[in-house]
Amino acid sequence: MALIVAGVNYKNAPLELREALALDQRLAESYSGLRAGGAFQELVLLSTCNRVEAYALAADGPRAEAVLRDFFEALAPARAAQVRKALQAAHDDAMLWHLLQVAASLDSMVLGEAQILGQVKQAYEAAVHHKAVGPVFHGLFQRVFAAAKQVRSDTEIGRRPASIPSVAVQLAERLFGELKGHGVLVLGAGDMAELCAEHLVSAGAGRLQFFNRSLPKARELAKRFQGDAAGLDELPAGLVHADVVVCSSGAPDFLIRPPDLEKAQALRHRKPQMLIDISVPRNIDPSVGALQNVYLYNLDDLDQLAGEHREKRLAASHEAEVLLKHRLRDLREWLAAARVLPTVKRLGEHFEAVRAAELERSRGKLAHLSPQDQARVDALTKAIVQKLLHTPLSRLKQQAAKPGGASQLVEGAERLFGLDQEEEP
Amino acid sequence: MPSVLPYFWLYQAAFGLQVPAVALFLAYAFAPRRALSAAATALLGASLFCHALFAALSAWSGGRMPLASGFEALSAWGLALTALVVAVEWRYKMGLLGAFLAPLSAATLLMGFRFAHSDAVPIPGLGDAWLLAHVALAMLSYAPFTAAAGVAGAYLVQERQLKAKRLDPLFYDLPSLQDLEGLLAALALSGAAALGLGLLAGFEWRWRYDQSLGLGDPTVCYSVAMVWLYAVGLWLRARGPLRGRRFAWLCLAGFLLVFFGYYLVNLYFGGHGFLQPGGGR
């Protein structure tokens, strides 16, 4: 029994190639195609914008890798040579380590990003939906998810945002807690202001007000974000209701000065305000930051924080690797025991098939029995089979948990009961 | 320290449990692991249980509310404060807040050892509901004032970091500034309300006792001033001028004044007539 991962990711394949291999629209056919060949016992396909990978459990590792290579090449026939060059595969321990790193976001383009764990979970659920997951991958993926969650909770890898808009959102959350109900004022119509607004809205921010020299542009943004639009002459009134001000206007001078904020602060009973000035040249007078309950951040501040966070994530990734190595050791031990699970399952299925067939053959001779008695005979035969199987299956599981594993015992059981000659599922 | 107090070992156990709890909360500030704060909160909960049991058994064996001596007052203060810290930890589940609050509750219990060797001399008339309410409310009011001081410390750290644009690990394990300020205001308000009601109960008792309000008592005057200080502070916060950092400083200063008033005036100078043998006559 071999574990294998094969696929491409952002490190070895450009975006166009990853797009060409994306499985989103052809997931069902991919599962049915791969499983039809009989090379895989269990299979999970992961397709995100940064990676397209297949995780498989197979009886024959080299054969499974060859099938996967053919599969990926067939996904983008026009780029077969490029796929061949970019495609990477890893087996057994290396596959486990890769899966742990992917799920824990140590292999992500943005180190520590939170989405990948959800994407791996979705991929696993899709595989379950397509009946491509058996007892080994069920146990394996649950353990990998637990390890990834532990990395997120026990290290600082995902605790600090690493992009400018997400740093802005986190600062706002540090100041206000939940952003729900908090007013946001967007001054100007720069791309970064729009991006910050998007992040703030997705974090739950309340109503947005857009102020711009060009009212039509402000209205356009207001329509998109279901907010209000106004010209710069209404800015003083707008400041009173704004808990967060995002400024990216491109104006040559300051649009917000200390007296403007002083007036707004007095009218809002000095409730805290956060100002984000991402315009160059700056449009908020820096001396505003000295006012009580006013918190001002400019582009350099946010960029510096994001940079520090990226460094901290890198430092935390070493800690995370140590943690994952411990989990890898646990996984190895668990897998040694789990390797007998397919045999256990097949042995159970084999006995059940024999029982059902024999019962069916005797159906005519038992026809005189009442339905209740027939049900009793059915239950009796089931109980006999379970009793007969109990000891050998227990021994198999016990032996698998011991050092050295149960490979000889598994092989012996498969030969003894003819499982090695049965067709692969 | 040998003690003649019954069930004192429970008080010692309560304090003994708080010491590792404080250590774990402080460890959490340097290595934020959920397990540390969870263990610290559990220890604090166990300490609360021991302390509550001690208070209940003391009340049962003495046949009176255990609020009649310096030790018993400090014990009530510490009990209420520990309950508040556990409640705040349970509400916010942020170990770092515990690092600010738990040392205060442990320190309050520690102060109790200073007076634990002396037997309580029952206050005459403690059976009177008004006097009992007065003492109980006054003692209970000190707990939120003390907790407010811890929260004010956390607020000032968080506020300083946001202003200075420096986000060290402490930053990530505190509630938001707005939540901290809300908690601060709630604690200050509940402390001032309890102290104010305690004073009113005391006035009522005193009036029944000798038709005076006891305003010549320095502790009474001091406490009235404290209630006014907090009331004015809360009002100015609501109106704006004392919002934010200034209110946090007020809570810190208020705590020091409460501490000064209670610890020095009451316990060392015997300033409050109710606590003296003879009940202020």
Give keywords.
heterodimer; A: 425 residues; alpha/beta; Beta Polymerase, domain 2; Rossmann fold; 3 domains; 6-stranded parallel sheet; 4-stranded antiparallel sheet; 16 helices; 10 strands; B: 281 residues; mainly alpha; 2 domains
Task: Provide structural commentary.
The complex is a heterodimer of chains A (425) and B (281). Chain A is of the alpha/beta class and 425 residues long. Chain A has 3 domains: 153 residues, Glutamyl-tRNA reductase, N-terminal domain (Beta Polymerase, domain 2), CATH 3.30.460.30; 143 residues, Rossmann fold (3-Layer(aba) Sandwich), CATH 3.40.50; 83 residues, no CATH class. In chain A, helix 13 packs across helix 15. Chain B has 281 residues and is mainly α. Chain B folds into 2 domains: 122 residues; 156 residues, no CATH class. The C terminus of chain B is likely disordered. The chains are: A alpha/beta (425), B mainly alpha (281). At the A-B interface, helix 8 and helix 13 of A face helix 5 and helix 6 of B.
Helices and strands in order:
The complex is a heterodimer of chains A (425) and B (281).
Chain A: E1 2-9, H1 15-21, H2 27-36, E2 42-47, E3 51-58, H3 61-75, H4 80-86, E4 88-91, H5 92-103, H6 115-129, H7 135-154, H8 164-176, E5 184-187, H9 191-202, E6 208-211, H10 215-225, E7 228-230, H11 235-241, E8 244-247, H12 258-267, E9 273-277, E10 294-298, H13 299-338, H14 341-361, H15 371-401, H16 407-416
Parallel strand pairs in A: 5-6, 5-8, 6-7, 8-9, 9-10
Antiparallel strand pairs in A: 1-3, 1-4, 2-3
Helix pairs in contact in A: 3-4, 5-7, 5-13, 7-13, 8-9, 8-13, 11-12, 13-15, 14-15
Chain B: H1 8-30, H2 34-62, H3 70-92, H4 95-115, H5 129-164, H6 177-210, H7 218-239, H8 245-268
